[in-house]
Amino acid sequence: MTTAVLGAGLSGLSAGYYLLRRFGKPLTIYEASPRVGGWIRTEGHKDRGFLFEGGPRTIRPKGVAGANTLELIEELDLPIHPIPSSHVAAKNRMLYAKGQVCMLPNSPKGLIRTVPPFTKPLYRALLHDLFTGSTLAKNEDESIYSFTKRRFGKEIADYAISPMICGICAGDAHEISVRFLMETLFENEQKYGGVLKGAFYARFKDKVDEKKPGLFARGEPKLFKQATKEKWAMYGVEDGLEQLPRAMRKYLGEHDVNVQLSSKCSNLTFNGDGARISLRDAEVPVKHVISALPAHQLAAVVGAQHPSLAAQLLEIPYVDVVVVNIQYNSDQLLKHNGFGLLVPPVEKLPILGVIFDSCCFDMAGNTILTVMMGGRWFDQWFGNQPSQKKLRDIAHQHVRQILQIKEEPVFSRVHMLHKCIPQYTVGHKRRVENIRKYIKDYKLPLSVCGAAYDGVGINDVILSARRQVEELPSPSEP
Ligand SMILES: Cc1cc2nc3c(=O)[nH]c(=O)nc-3n(C[C@H](O)[C@H](O)[C@H](O)COP(=O)(O)OP(=O)(O)OC[C@H]3O[C@@H](n4cnc5c(N)ncnc54)[C@H](O)[C@@H]3O)c2cc1C
To answer: Which residue(s) pair with 320 in the sheet?
Structure first.
């Protein structure tokens, strides 16, 4: 009997990769769609020198999770495009607020001046934290909006944190858990009564943590050392991010791992010996299952036998996002260069932000923009099943108005991504602990990894898969 992975998005492919590395074969990955990569989708226009990313585009080379991805990329020998922190796309991030494009401060000098849309210098927000005690009783969780407002004031919550949350998970900061982005800051506040006060402690603690053995038995990956030395802020993959899942599939295939496409799991049951996976035309007995499915999809397949597990999985909400890629024939259209701009939700506009792809990567004389829309506010703005034309028109109109681009786009592509980003709402950490506790209590031969549980970024889903594989008992253990 084999181990099986459900889902060949990046997390499922990573689970396959780490299972192979740790246990060898036999191993099968079942994927519902006819392709690998999940939300990662690149549309190449090589003849004209540009590409469109329908999902993610950049990866951050930071921390353990960043180093882990670079180790994988090194192993796959995948060519990448680093963006150093001195690059304009790394330095310039903008907001569209109060009727204008505002450049966010990118140096310590920016802290002492008043820069729009803020009405006070940002150092005042830090003083606010320093002189505000912890007013809450010790708390398990709270929204990132309420935490930021308490510690740094309403303006920072509205114009810094809320748009950042839109940019990362298309969510509403009033609902998203503070632990999603600021777990350490929050815990330090609870312990020491302030974020800055906690920072002093954290510096000391980091030094202690550095001495703990890490993920990398043979030392940090070479690419990670290079990224640190050359101060990469982020990177993309040559010919688009979809090359990463494709390279993983190729690697797995070359090592006799079976990646079975167009094989949707419709039911998953467990018995004393292992699990049974129901496919359209077969029932497959396996020893252990790693699910890298979105939580709502896993709920659908375990619900018949484990309704209470399914109910817990369904408590992780998802949002719909519209991605509109736009191409113009000239590269002289943008007044400001940078990574892109975000629109704070207090502005009440139907777009979440615009990414300036052609400022990040060379697009051969084209201007390429990506407009993100919807997210937590999808229904409010677009209702039920909006047409592609309506979505395209809204994206074009806002780009024209905000970026003052008079030219008409030559080509654009609308992607409607249904339930694409899980929302780590208040209580998420406890929810995930309870899901894993249920699996443990019932001794189910099941592990769960992917964007629903341990972080929504590329690095997180790869590391999530690695950790789940490492938690499996070795073959010699009972
Ligand atoms: C628009 C957008 C932009 C993003 N930008 C970035 C970015 O710039 N940087 C970054 O780090 N992250 C970004 N992310 C996040 C990142 O893309 C995701 O975290 C990651 O791709 C999720 O991978 P996954 O494998 O967990 O899930 P998925 O990609 O959802 O993969 C799940 C797979 O399971 C399959 N499946 C579903 N049901 C079944 C079934 N019953 N049987 C078998 N297979 C099934 C699906 O077809 C899919 O292939 C972005 C996400 C989106 C949506």
So the answer is: 375
